[in-house]
Design a protein that fits this description.
The chain is mainly beta and 762 residues long. It has 7 helices and 49 strands. The chain has an 8-stranded parallel beta sheet with strand order 28-27-26-25-24-31-30-29, with helices on one face. Strands 4, 5, 6, 8, 9, 10 and 12 form a 7-stranded antiparallel beta sheet that branches. Bound molecules: beta-D-galactopyranose.
Length: 762
């Protein structure tokens, strides 16, 4: 849980615009466009419905985005609690230099249907909680102060908006839960840029830059493009464009040598597009790309021509307490966990487009992504389908330059066939982005394949045969074997094995491109799903993102050069079993090649990877028969891991049964004082060697001082020896001190420094 520089920083010099998901360099002096963050100083009226511009909002709560319309316990709440209509208002001042420009409010995401108004003028309701939308304020603005942007937000599960209308086994929550920005652009401006590397593996590689302008160009306008590697100009190109075309293509040729984007070296380049139009408009648009070729073939997935067996997990974007409303740092942390802690090479954004902060981190870390439209089993009427088709366009237009994205999911997850509907979604995806294949996540093996890749949720074992071209398993396990971190040893160990055996089968045949397990993290759900406490315990990690033993299977599949992994796929006990006859065979997850197992100081077993059961895995689990050790005398279990005869790692599990230590572990020790930046603080009760005590309880009382607040329950009652809260920075700099007191393990205290953030201009 070390602090990672990759998780800081990007925000401080880059702003991702909601429209187009482009990346705008704040430092650029030539840019005519201006983007203002509008996350702070919002007023939240809760269920108040009065949005008249002059309405008295002096008593409303001052809040910062991302915002959850209600804070919830981490489980066992009522799913009706966040389903209501709420009202937000933001007063701002229009700057004199906006005269003669066009002004937009860009919403990156508000759940679920937003009626935005500016100074009393209502825009048409935008329906959809996962996709960005913009409204043009220009004509309705007043000069100077006194402008009121208001949102009436319907967070009900509305049957007319995907994914609703049927059942869904996850929660959508409510609130303006992503960023809002004001974008000020010239009359003619760059709406979006699709930058596609052409023949990235060949020496004559090119970059196709498709420029979407705000409207027809009636007189020649010039476009200048720069491909940059940081500050270094790699290649420039210029073009003159004219006419009513929907977009204008400019090719950057003669690029020469580039570093490819791949899993180990996710090299990113910047593309800057500058527009100069005869009406005096000058605009600049900045985006990031990677040179890479990603292709599903009949013999598996290829990245830059090399086979890569895909091994990954599905991710829901929801967090405890706030649902989706978590800032960039938390979104990025999930990508970090998946790539660097669990060593996955792919994630699926089940079941909707997720935060661009998450995708940015995937680009930077080299984590492949399957992104899909909102939906779950249910297909609504034609109006509903039209929204889903629109979602395809919104998702692709927002995210088409992310090199991490290798596949668009353009079918409602696990829906029935719908020929016309899915003909439309596929056609649109291909028309917008011919560089990526489409998938459509299904659970009916013989369903109609209109997509390029056969993406199948297959929960049985053994898996069905890969008798479809381009076969990717997109879900397995999950509800078939829901496992809490505090279940007994046999169940927890079986959970590990079930993930291992599926990946073993997927590795056995090149026609399987790989598999994306269900799922990364436990998640909140409706009362008619999950374990009866509003949680689907389907994660290899819990809802706080703390690994369960199944997570260690994923972790152990990396090369030892990356990390030497040695983890127990069980808890150390003699009698926590499902049946008579002892705990039996349990897995140890490691990429070592040999293990020695000691009980109370005596060597009891020497183990090699179980290649017989898992012949196709790179690093098969080691199986140890606990009941046969024998267990007398009882004591600590020590496992030594060897690589080529050399001892490289030791894991010791205490036999004392004692709760020995309380750990309070912040992911970060520095936050931005912008009122929304937040970091997770993990609470753990461990044995003497630092292993989680899976049945430890205890109410941890938290006290905070300084410019921060606790997002979470206080006191926090540990579940399975663990838990977490998030510490959110206020809008001032200083030192946060968090003190955690356990009933018998004492008190721990941590400090988090809050840096001053630039004030929000508007
Ligand atoms: C699938 C579904 C997922 C989740 C999973 C549980 O059918 O696509 O969203 O419900 O089952 O295993």
């Amino acid at each position: 849980m070390e602090t990672n520089p990759l998780l800081f920083g990007r925000r401080e010099f880059l702003l991702a615009t909601a429209a187009g998901g482009a990346v705008q360099a704040q430092t650029s002096s030539v840019s005519m466009r201006k983007i203002y963050s509008l996350n702070r100083k919002w007023l939240y009226g809760g269920k108040v419905r009065d949005v008249a511009p002059g309405a008295d909002d002096s008593k409303w709560e001052r809040i910062t985005l991302p915002h959850a319309n209600v804070l919830l316990p981490w489980h066992s709440f009522d799913e009706k609690d966040f389903q209501f209509v709420s009202t937000y208002r933001r007063h701002f001042k229009a700057a004199p230099e906006w005269n003669g420009r066009r002004v937009f409010a860009d919403f990156a995401g508000a759940m679920t249907a937003s009626t935005v108004s500016i100074n009393g003028h209502n825009f048409e309701e935008y329906r959809g909680g996962y996709t960005p939308f913009s409204v043009e304020l220009t004509r309705h603005l007043k000069p100077g102060a006194g402008n009121v942007l208001a949102v009436q937000l319907d967070s009900n599960e509305r049957a007319d908006v995907p994914p609703f209308g049927g059942n869904i086994d996850y929660l959508t929550f409510g609130g303006i839960y992503r960023d809002v920005r004001i974008r000020v652009v010239p009359t003619t401006f760059i709406e979006n840029v699709y930058a596609k590397p052409v023949r990235p593996l060949e020496p004559d590689r090119e970059l196709l830059v498709r420029c979407y302008l705000s409207g027809p160009v009636t007189q020649p306008a010039s476009i200048a493009i720069e491909l940059r590697d940081g500050a270094r100009l790699v290649k420039a190109a210029n073009a003159v464009v004219n006419g009513p075309a929907e977009f204008h293509d400019v090719r950057v040729t003669g690029i020469g040598q580039v570093e490819l984007w791949d899993l180990k070296n996710p090299k990113l380049y910047t593309v800057i597009v500058r527009l100069s139009a005869p009406d005096g408009s000058k605009d600049e648009y900045v985006t990031r790309i990677g040179f890479r070729e990603a292709k599903f073939t009949p013999a598996g997935f290829r990245l830059n021509g090399a086979p890569v067996k895909l091994i990954g997990l599905n991710r829901h974007q929801t967090f405890p307490y706030t649902g989706g409303a978590m800032p960039a740092r938390a979104q990025r942390r999930d990508a970090w966990i998946l790539k660097r802690e669990l060593h996955c090479n792919i994630a699926r954004t089940s079941h909707y487009p997720q935060s661009t902060d998450f995708l940015d981190a995937c680009d930077e870390l080299g984590l492949l992504v399957l992104e899909e439209i909102p939906g779950w089993q249910h297909i609504g009427d034609i109006a509903w389908q039209n929204i889903a088709v629109r979602n395809v366009g919104e998702m692709i237009r927002r995210d088409w330059n992310h090199p991490s994205i290798i596949l668009w999911g353009v079918r409602i997850n696990e829906s029935q066939d719908s020929h016309d509907f899915y003909t439309r979604t596929n056609a649109l995806a291909h028309a917008l982005d011919d560089a990526r294949q489409t998938g459509g996540i299904r659970y009916i093996y013989n369903s109609e394949l209109l997509e390029d890749v056969f993406t199948m949720n297959d929960f049985g074992f053994p898996l069905q045969l890969p008798n479809h071209p381009l076969y990717l398993n997109t879900e397995f396990n999950g509800h078939m074997f829901s496992t809490k971190r505090f279940d007994n040893v046999t169940r927890v160990a079986e959970h590990v094995i079930r993930h291992a055996r599926v990946h073993n089968q997927l590795a056995s045949d090149d026609r399987y491109a790989g598999g994306i397990g269900w799922c990364a993290f436990d998640y909140n759900t409706h009362s008619n799903f999950g374990s009866g406490d509003h949680i689907c315990y389907h994660g290899v990690s819990d809802i706080f993102r703390i690994p369960k033993p199944a997570a260690y299977f994923y972790q152990s599949q990396c090369d030892p050069e990356e990390e030497v992994v040695l983890q127990a796929g069980f808890f150390w006990s003699s009698g926590d079993k499902s049946e008579a006859g002892g705990v039996g065979n349990v897995p140890i997850l490691s990429n070592c090649d040999h293990l020695k197992v000691y009980l109370a100081g005596t060597l009891k077993a020497e183990l090699d990877p179980d290649r017989k059961t898992f012949p196709y895995l790179k690093h098969p689990p080691f199986m140890v028969n606990i009941s046969g050790l024998p267990l007398n005398p009882w004591g600590d279990l020590k496992i030594d891991g060897y690589l080529k005869g050399k001892l490289v790692k030791t894991l010791t599990l205490s036999g004392s049964g004692k709760d020995a230590d309380l750990k309070v572990l912040p992911d970060d020790t520095e936050l931005m004082g912008d009122g929304s930046d937040a970091t997770r603080v993990v609470l753990l009760v461990t044995d003497e060697y630092g292993n989680i005590k899976p049945f430890a309880t205890g109410a941890i009382s938290l006290a905070i001082s300084g410019p921060g607040e606790i997002i979470g329950e206080n006191p926090f009652a540990l579940a399975g020896g663990v838990g977490a809260v998030w510490i959110k920075a206020k809008e001032t700099a200083g030192e946060i001190r968090l003190t955690a007191k356990h009933p018998y393990l004492g008190t721990r205290s941590i400090a988090i420094h809050v840096k001053a953030a630039a004030p929000e201009i508007l």
